[in-house]
TrEMBL record:
Residues 51-100, 108-126 have a biased composition (Acidic residues). It comes from Virgibacillus indicus. This is DUF1510 domain-containing protein. The lineage of its organism: Bacteria, Bacillati, Bacillota, Bacilli, Bacillales. Keywords: Membrane, Transmembrane, Transmembrane helix. Pfam families: DUF1510. Coiled coil: none annotated. The chain crosses the membrane at residues 23-44. InterPro entries: DUF1510. Residues 133-223 form the DUF1510 domain.
């Protein structure tokens, strides 16, 4: 065998050995990369899935909490409405009781004032009067001072005191009275037509002003019909 043939075989063997070594190195590197990727997938991927699921769980908790808060809010609102309803009902009942008590108090005061009053039946002034009588009522008192000029405007001291005097003479409580008419009955004198709210009791009351003492009822007429209702 010639030297050239030997060298050629040696070169081929050396190349084959180098190729085999390179392939082995590549396979080792490839295997290492595969192991690294598997590790990342197994360990890192599981955490990603858990992390990916966590927002959903947190979202569900928020929804549940919102439902609970809404439920609690609705329940609190319902309780508040019930409490307000109960309070309003109690206030209404108290107002009605106070009104009834005031009316009873006025009626009792009028009865007390009329107990000592001596009345005397007199002739009716017209055919619409079923009964007429005079009495020794006392002036009701007044807060007005100085010279007196009668006024009929609502809200004035005269109107308030005229109503009070009519209440004393008729026995109708002030908060149960309708003032139908006031007219001039002469110098410092007034004739008032009043009734109860049910309009079952209608009176014509004659009143005189007493200086520094107020209005004094002098005569009462019980009317058959309200002749001032449509005026």
């Amino acid at each position: 065998m010639s030297d050239n043939d030997k060298n050629s075989r040696l070169d081929k063997f050396e190349k084959r050995r180098k190729n085999t070594k390179n392939i082995s190195i590549l396979l080792i590197i490839g295997g290492i990369l595969i192991i690294i990727l598997l590790g990342i997938w197994l360990f890192g991927g599981g955490n990603d899935e858990e992390n990916a699921n966590q927002p959903d769980e947190a979202s569900e908790d928020i929804v549940i909490n919102e439902d609970n808060e809404n439920s609690n809010t609705e329940e609190n609102d319902s309780n508040a409405d019930n409490e307000n309803s109960d309070t309003d009902s109690e206030n209404t009942e108290e107002t009605e009781d106070d009104s009834n008590n005031d009316q009873k108090s006025d009626e009792e005061n009028n009865e007390d004032n009329n107990e000592n009053v001596e009345t005397e039946e007199v002739e009716p002034s017209d055919d619409n009067v079923s009964k007429a009588y005079t009495g020794n009522w006392e002036p009701i008192g007044t807060e007005q001072e100085g010279p007196h000029t009668t006024t009929y405007e609502e809200g004035t001291a005269d109107r308030q005191e005229l109503k009070q005097a009519a209440s004393v003479a008729t026995g109708i409580a002030e908060n149960d009275m309708i003032e139908w008419w006031y007219e001039n009955g002469g110098d410092q004198k007034v004739i008032a037509t009043v009734s109860n709210n049910a309009q079952t009791e209608i009176y014509r009351v004659y009143l005189s002003w007493i200086d520094e003492k107020g209005w004094q009822p002098t005569k009462v007429e019980e009317l058959i019909e309200n002749d001032r209702k449509n005026m």
